[in-house]
């Protein structure tokens, strides 16, 4: 009989939002409802009245704007993850995408939920007035899209070897999209009205430093992987206000982070948030496709009726319930050692990093 696999929670970010996401589970699961009410009250204290429009599954451009999408994504991620922890599951690791990394850090104990909401509210305020823009999903690798990038239109996310997101101001992004389509690339606009993970947001993002510097930061209680510096998050990184402040302007390297996470063990990957975008990415990973690791979603791919959402959640939770308890996070000095040196060296050989201010890939060891 196959031994139970450790559980890893994945937290989606900008672009995963959908009208009515999680509403069915809210009506069907008292524990989730309690956690969602808790976090929505924290947002209300900062002037974000999200509940009515969320429960009504309101649509429109504002649903993808930062004042709606970012708070609700954080809230759904945190509340779903918290409900899983409340059920007694102790994950072996947490990994978030974009704003999902803040939710993961909060669940790991780095930030108090009230402080996280305050930080997110401040981030949203600082981004107000930045140039309109967006993100473009392209079925290609970073090297393939490099000729279409500029100082402002950059690779904003690497989700898989041939799945990237371009990010930038609207005019430049539209030009890149037209050229990519003309050259035969498959493209799709992500649900974003801002150029998240583009250097055009750097100045605005840095304005969040004063508040970040004042917020208490704790050692992670659970192993926390970062998609900005792929690998286990160290306490030194977590204590650096610039690490968090610059996240809206830095590329998300979810694919390389997932490679590192899966490099040495098979796990059950459970997407704790709206949709199953990260689940779909994970299922294409060789470690999952070959039947070693598994990937499940705690919410359905599309919002559904309360009974259907509860059934999806319960099925996924049942797969996690037998998972062995994950270890506590390693001390800061030892966190990187959670991934062996040979594995990390092998992955770093093929990993690209993105030079700030350009879309050009450079070797991983380049400074």
UniProtKB/TrEMBL annotation:
InterPro entries named in the record: Ac_transferase_dom_sf (IPR001227), Acyl_transferase_dom (IPR014043), Acyl_Trfase/lysoPLipase (IPR016035), Malonyl_transacylase_ACP-bd (IPR016036), PKS_NRPS_Biosynth_Enz (IPR050091)
Keywords: Phosphopantetheine, Phosphoprotein, Transferase
Pfam family, one: Acyl_transf_1
Gene Ontology BP terms: DIM/DIP cell wall layer assembly; fatty acid biosynthetic process
A GO term for molecular function: fatty acid synthase activity
Gene3D superfamilies: Malonyl-Coenzyme A Acyl Carrier Protein, domain 2
Region called Disordered, residue ranges: 347-367
Single GO cellular component term: plasma membrane
Coiled coil stretches, renumbered: none
Residue ranges of every copy of the Malonyl-CoA:ACP transacylase (MAT) domain listed in the record: 10-303
Protein's UniProt name: Acyl transferase family protein
Lineage, broadest ranks: Bacteria, Bacillati, Actinomycetota, Actinomycetes, Kitasatosporales
């Amino acid at each position: 009989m196959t031994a139970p696999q450790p559980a890893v929670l994945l937290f989606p970010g900008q672009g995963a939002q959908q009208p009515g996401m999680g509403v069915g589970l809210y009506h069907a699961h008292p524990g989730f409802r309690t956690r969602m009410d808790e976090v929505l009250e924290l947002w209300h204290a900062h002037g974000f009245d999200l509940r009515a429009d969320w429960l009504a599954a309101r649509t429109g451009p504002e649903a993808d704007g930062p004042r709606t999408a970012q708070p609700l994504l954080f809230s759904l991620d945190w509340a779903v993850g918290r409900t899983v922890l409340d059920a007694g599951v102790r994950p072996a690791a947490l990994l978030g995408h974009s704003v999902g990394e803040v939710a993961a850090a909060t669940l790991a104990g780095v930030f108090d939920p009230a402080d996280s909401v305050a930080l997110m509210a401040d981030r949203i305020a600082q981004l107000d007035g930045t140039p309109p823009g967006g993100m473009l999903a392209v079925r290609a690798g970073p090297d393939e899209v490099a000729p279409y990038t500029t100082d402002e239109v950059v690779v904003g996310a690497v989700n898989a070897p041939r799945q990237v997101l371009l990010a930038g101001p609207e005019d430049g992004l539209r030009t890149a999209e037209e050229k990519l389509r003309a050259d035969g690339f498959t493209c799709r606009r992500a649900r974003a009205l801002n150029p998240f993970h583009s250097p055009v947001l750097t100045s605005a993002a840095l304005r969040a430093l004063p508040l970040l510097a004042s917020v208490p930061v704790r050692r992670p209680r659970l192993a926390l992987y970062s998609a900005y510096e792929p690998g286990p998050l160290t306490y030194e990184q977590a204590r650096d206000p610039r690490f968090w402040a610059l996240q809206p302007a830095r590329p998300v390297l979810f694919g390389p982070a997932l490679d590192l996470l899966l490099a040495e063990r098979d796990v059950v990957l459970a997407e704790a948030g709206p949709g199953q975008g990260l689940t779909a990415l994970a299922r294409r990973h060789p470690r999952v496709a070959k039947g070693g690791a598994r990937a499940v979603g705690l919410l359905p791919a599309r919002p559904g009726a309360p009974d259907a959402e509860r059934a999806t959640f319960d099925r996924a939770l049942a797969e996690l319930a037998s998972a062995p308890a994950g270890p506590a996070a390693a001390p800061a000095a030892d966190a990187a050692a959670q991934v062996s040196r040979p594995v990390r060296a092998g992955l770093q050989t093929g990993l690209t990093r993105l030079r700030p201010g350009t879309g050009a890939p450079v070797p991983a060891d380049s400074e």
